[in-house]
Amino acid sequence: xxxxxxxxxxxxxxxxxxxxxxxxxxxxxxxxxxxxxxxxxxxxxxxxxxxxxxxxxxxxxxxxxxxxxxxxxxxxxxxxxxxxxxxxxxxxxxxxxxxxxxxxxxxxxxxxxxxxxxxxxxxxxxxxxxxxxxxxxxxxxxxxxxxxxxxxxxxxxxxxxxxxxxxxxxxxxxxxxxxxxxxxxxxxxxxxxxxxxxxxxxxxxxxxxxxxxxxxxxxxxxxxxxxxxxxxxxxxxxxxxxxxxxxxxxxxxxxxxxxxxxxxxxxxxxxxxxxxxxxxxxxxxxxxxxxxxxxxxxxxxxxxxxxxxxxxxxxxxxxxxxxxxxxxxxxxxxxxxxxxxxxxxxxxxxxxxxxxxxxxxxxxxxxxxxxxxxxxxxxxxxx
Length: 383
Ligand SMILES: *Cc1c(COP(=O)(O)O)cnc(C)c1O
Known about the structure:
Layout: H1 8-13, H2 16-29, H3 36-49, E1 53-57, H4 60-70, E2 78-82, H5 88-95, E3 99-103, E4 125-131, H6 140-149, E5 153-157, E6 165-166, E7 169-170, E8 177-181, E9 195-199, H7 202-212, H8 233-243, H9 246-264, E10 290-291, E11 297-300, H10 304-313, H11 343-348, E12 351-354, H12 362-382
Parallel strand pairs: 2-3, 2-4, 4-5, 5-8
Antiparallel strand pairs: 1-9, 6-7, 6-10, 8-9, 11-12
Helix pairs in contact: 2-8, 3-8, 4-5, 4-7, 9-12
């Protein structure tokens, strides 16, 4: 039995006739840009998130970029970002001419460590981007408190957090602006690139509506110098079909996560240590007031590379998110202002993302647990 990390063809098989119909309807309508499907999806996504406004855009990076632009972030400004995120979070900041300032994650949650934010705030800082990494909501309460103390904006990068909750409320409506990606592999994914911004702020919503479409809401009338960052009708129609299944798919993810946790807890150490025994693993930490979207199920262990190789030999596909912290990438060479070794450097050598997603069944999760226990048992026997 092969256990793929994610198998979208398997997921789409079950809803294929609905997808075919949606796509055919768009083709028959002859409307491909910003028409009925985009408007309907925006309304459905806004409702799902509990936000006043949703604006469909081209992808997650553009969503983040438009958030920065709408907030007036640009040349000479600084924006606080987590040091362990997908590079898009940083690229959105540099794309508008500002400088991303990386802050270490909390080794317990892997999210931005609120205790380390203030030392990175300068007179140039304009905003904090909170990433809900792996689907676990960041500490928005603390981050918002720090932001308001220093008059900073809060942008959420929710590209991995579709349907995640804080105190029962879904992510998407609590900070200034929230950026979404519907890249195919996300919890809600299009059949291509797509994204959105949600907000409760009418001014920001209108600004983003202009920015995404050549600075125009009325044809041939251009109020500002905008961009082309539109969501298209085909992707919107696909997202409308898939949104109906999001909660069901998230609950399969959550079942996988619970199974992993229950079956691997015997070899787990319950802590946020960066150093631990070779025969132990660190399981995801569950905060009690939040619900993760379980975009990724990330464990940590010293023998990460060896386990990954072993699992691959057993036809189990694992990935690393991310093997090199974004701020250490060549793209940001020369701008690195961090200490030599930082929490995310240590994490990137230990983390391993196990298969999780709506394609998984019980046999697959069982097999992954069984093989991990075999591998770790051998380490234990040797030591
Ligand atoms: C996927 C992702 C993005 C970028 O989304 P795209 O649609 O690929 O541009 C941004 N931030 C995070 C945390 C992501 O996981």
